[in-house]
């Protein structure tokens, strides 16, 4: 696997975040109701599919990819990756991309990247967006490497994924928190400030196209 050849350079994400904030402010009461109503998610490990077992990435493959992507040592990446593997096992794929966060009254998060599934030769474009709580006014951009579990159909990625309460870990400048919906689990790995803001996200909605309003 040669992740170093895959580069995602989204442009204008911060502009999208800040411009969308004004529209979001007008809908803040609606956003609050939806976030509180849909942030809960069943705990425990996701159920395994009864279909033929999918190909998965090994710990070594993911450690090498994460260390190359974030520019950290394999040892630093390995500590966090091993924690995720201990919780969830080997992923069937990943999303490699970038995102921007900001706040105008209510926090916003927007991202885009390419999804790669083990055994598939192509890449699938994915966008995500969602509200955040507790993020100060302003904005920042960060890289994101999202591990994917139990995704047996690539099109099932396009739905809303609530965060799993109490699943956030922060090790050696990298952080991860889990999102789960319909037996699919996502584990976005972020760096620095991007992680701390990401831990506050009530949910992220993944889509085929960029949406301005994150609902």
Describe it for me?
The protein is α+β, with helices and mostly antiparallel strands. It has one domain (3-37, 55-207). The chain has five helices and ten strands; from the N terminus they run H-H-H-H-E-E-E-E-E-E-E-E-E-H-E. Strands 1, 2, 3, 4, 5, 6, 7, 8, 9 and 10 form a ten-stranded antiparallel β-sheet that branches. Helix 3 (59-70) packs across helix 4 (74-88). The longest helix has 15 residues, at 74-88. The radius of gyration is 16 Å and the shape is globular.
List key phrases describing it.
single chain; alpha+beta; 5 helices; 27% helix; disordered N terminus
Topology:
Elements: H1 13-26, H2 28-38, H3 59-70, H4 74-88, E1 93-104, E2 106-117, E3 124-132, E4 138-149, E5 160-162, E6 169-171, E7 174-176, E8 179-181, E9 184-191, H5 192-198, E10 203-207
Antiparallel strand pairs: 1-2, 1-4, 2-3, 3-10, 4-9, 5-10, 6-7, 7-9, 8-9
